[in-house]
Amino acid sequence: MQRARSWASMILIFGLSILAVSCGESSDEEVPQAICGTRIDPDLTRPLLTSNEDLHESNKVDRAEATSGPCTVLSKEDAVLEFHFYWAADAPNLELMARNKEPLGVTEVRNGAVIKGMLIGDNGAIATSPCRTQTGEHFTLALQVSQLRVADRSLRKSIENFMRSYFPATLKTLDCS
Fold first, then answer.
1. 165 to 26, 29, 38, 88, 144: CA distances (angstroms)
2. Is the peptide bond prior to 103 cis by the omega test (within 30 degrees of 0)?
3. Which contacts of 27-30 are long-range, i.e. CB under 8 A and separated by 24 or more positions?
4. Global confidence as pTM
């Protein structure tokens, strides 16, 4: 009887360990380790995704030429994360950019936190930093988490955690002087 319990326990532990390993591998395969040309921990991206089925990107950004443009992460045909990369001569007014609905608006910024050139809102964030390139003196990145309901504040902390990692990592990929 004791021997049967030992075998059953070993089989259960073995089965659970295989399940845990396979689940961990599949989730990292579903969530990319790089988003719009920047490496990022999938654990920071995962909470922002409303779906991770058939993830792919539409990227119009040219980092080498410092050409402003959008990069959208799609699940099937639906946008789940929208980024806008901007290079400009002057530092932008983040609060004014956030209120602007085109191309990206960040909602509820009055409740957001401005953290070292970063503004966090309910549905996204905007961050800026000096970045001298051939096309400007400043780089700004806007993120919008698509498909969030108006006044949904549930992802604010996840958005902040993502941007605190993603924005500096993106700056490292640029040819700023």
1. 23, 20, 10, 22, 16
2. yes
3. 30/55
4. 0.77
